[in-house]
Amino acid sequence: MGMDVSGMVSLITDPGDMIVFAHRTYHAAYPNQTDRIRLSCGLNFRPRKEWIDAPWPLPESAKTFVSSLPQRLQPLVENYTGVDFSWRRESMMG
């Protein structure tokens, strides 16, 4: 299929499928051969000392999520950048 790497395992997926792997996993994607936009999203866990200066405001859904957590869990969401659930794959795909 055009990618020849010793030990490689191809994952053939359907649109909308999610693949999760560790950050050090070598990975690639086949070229997009459609006229539709292909999206990806990266999520990560990081040490608290690494601060992200997000250029977007914290969505109301994220503020609600953070404020609903018990006090003992509040340190886990310090500098949370949020997820905007109004951003949908379908709206980008046309």
Gist of the model:
With 94 residues, the protein is low in regular secondary structure. It has helices at residues 60-68, 89-93.
How would you describe the overall organization of this protein?
This protein is low in regular secondary structure. Helices cover 15% and strands 0% of the residues. The chain contains two helices and no strands. It has helices at 60-68, 89-93. The protein starts with 59 loop residues before the first helix and ends with a helix. The mean pLDDT is 78.
Q: What is the overall number of helices?
A: 2
Report the C-alpha radius of gyration, rounded. Answer: 18 Å
Mean model confidence by pLDDT: 78
Q: Structural class given helices, strands, pairing?
A: little secondary structure
Strand content: under 5%
Major sheet characteristics? none
H/E order of the elements? Answer: HH
Give the low-pLDDT segments.
none
End-to-end Cα distance, whole Å, is 28 Å
Gross morphology? elongated
Any key phrases for this structure?
94 residues, little secondary structure, 2 helices, elongated
